[in-house]
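Backbone shapes recur. Consider a single case.
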Amino acid sequence: MTSRRFFLYTSTDDLAASRRFYKDLVRLEQIWDEPDGVAYGIDDAVQFSIDYNPDAERATGWSFQPGWVYGLGIEPRPTSAHNSWSIPLAPRQFKEAVARLQAACTEALRPEPFWVGYWSYVVKDPMGRTVELSDPVSKAPADWRV
């Protein structure tokens, strides 16, 4: 097992839906799976653990993510920072994950990936949390200007 340097913990009231989202749609590397929780690896740096909690609070609206949210035209502007995270993916993994999420009709901030200095596709997970998938490797579109 790879040594993780950062651990992220969250909870869900629907573990099956969270498994489907993170394992089947995003295709994160599964580290372990138990009846009351599951964990995934993100690159070699993060262990992302999801614990079952029947009283887990669902997020509403889109989360504030410093650096880009106010330039995306989200109205009304988010007033609080709900839990949210970004998951970097290799270019092919990014394209395939976007296609799976679109086919599953996952709620997305925009219908297609967009350029914010890297490719970004922002969706909500089953608990309503904002999840940004990113492709930090592929180049900017030809018509993009700083």
Summary: The chain has a mean pLDDT of 86.
